[in-house]
Amino acid sequence: SSELTQDPAVSVALGQTVRITCQGDSLRSYYASWYQQKPGQAPVLVIYGKNNRPSGIPDRFSGSSSGNTASLTITGAQAEDEADYYCNSRDSSGNRHVVFGGGTKLTVL
Amino acid sequence: EVQLVESGGGLVQPGRSLRLSCAASGFTFDDYAMHWVRQAPGKGLEWVSGISWNSGSIGYADSVKGRFTISRDNAKNSLYLQMNSLRAEDTALYYCAKDPAKDYDSSGYFDYWGQGTLVTVSS
Fold first, then answer.
1. Average pLDDT in chain B
2. Confidence class for position A92, pLDDT limits 50, 70, 90
3. Chain A contact for B113, CB < 8 A?
4. B51-102: per-residue pLDDT in tens?
5. Contacts of B100 in chain A (CB under 8 A)
């Protein structure tokens, strides 16, 4: 199975820009999607496909990809963006699975 | 409004069985693939299983293959997960999640999630 790797923790000053990355071989073939999860809540999809935001997701969230690395960028981070962020994609090993990264805890200072 | 409501979780002894259900509303259930995703306490997300719109294609994570069975009843707008031979490492919050595509291995992502049902495997 493929694996997706994320930094365990990232911090950003209020109002600044932060990039959260996700690395894995499957990202050479498939787009990553990104989810925000706040304590005690279910995950919420924030980015999917090349760089698409579901309805209701602020435009400060954006996605990009290069080679085996996908990135979630928050431009002008807000206090309410403090959360865990997970990437995921299809597995490229041919087993028709779905894989998740280990998650990144974002702290807004 | 899309709603996914899981039920059926609880405390169960190792080796026993449990059946989870997910009641879906607010969308045309039989137009979309569905999945189960779990999260162990304090840990990350793990895909468990997916099923295509007509149950014609199903997939399982290696960690549950042979023990868990996913199914759906489109007439009842419901998704199920039959969990047999439960282990301590199956302890987790189990989420029902909607796929934006018909086939479970097509899009690779989940556009709506339920609030989860907690499964605790312990003697």
1. 97
2. confident
3. yes
4. 999 999 999 999 999 999 999 999 999 999 999 999 999 999 999 999 999 9
5. 48
Q: How far, CA to CA in Å, does B40 sit from each of A11, A63, B45, B47?
A: 24, 27, 8, 12
Section B12-35 average pLDDT: 98
Residues in chain A closer than 8 A to B46 (CB atoms): 100
What's the confidence (pLDDT) of residue A1?
A: 67
Q: What is the 3-state secondary structure (H, E, C) of chain A?
A: CCCEEECCEEEECCCCCEEEEEECHHHHCCCCEEEEECCCCCCEEEEECCCECCCCCCCCEEEEEECCEEEEEECCCCHHHCEEEEEEEECCCCCCCEEEECCEEEEEC
> Measured between alpha carbons, how far is B84 from B13 in angstroms, rounded to an integer?
11
Going by C-beta distance under 8 Å and a sequence separation of 6 or more, which residues neighbour residue A39?
Answer: none
Q: Nearest CA to CA, how far is B43 from chain A (Å)?
A: 8
